[in-house]
Amino acid sequence: MASANMLSVEWRRSSYSTNGGNCVEIGDGIADTVPVRDSKNPTGPILLASHTSWTAFLALAKATTV
To answer: Which of 37, 55, 58, 66 has its Cα between 20 and 30 A from that of 26?
Structure first.
């Protein structure tokens, strides 16, 4: 995905995130794609996931949360 497309992304953290600094942010604004980045390194690499993959990841994470 072209980096120009990433300029239109609006980043947000989970409402469950604390100020501990160990957060990921997901981006809104790109059709059919969920961009994910490390909140401590906003200019670093971005993982791109399909909505289907992201939904499956979240379901697994919720099911295995201790």
So the answer is: 66
Distance from C-alpha of 53 to C-alpha of 16, rounded to nearest angstrom: 21
Q: Which amino acid is at 59?
A: A
What number of CA atoms fall less than 13 Å from residue 37's CA on the CB side?
16
Would you state the structure tokens that stand for residue 20, as one six-digit string? 């501990």
Residue in this structure with the two tokens 């980096």, named with its chain if needed? 3
Instruction: Give pLDDT tens digits for 16-66.
Output: 777 666 788 999 988 889 999 998 898 899 999 999 999 999 999 889 866
Per DSSP, the residues of 6-38 read: HTT-EEEE-TT--TTS--EEEEESSTT-EEEEE
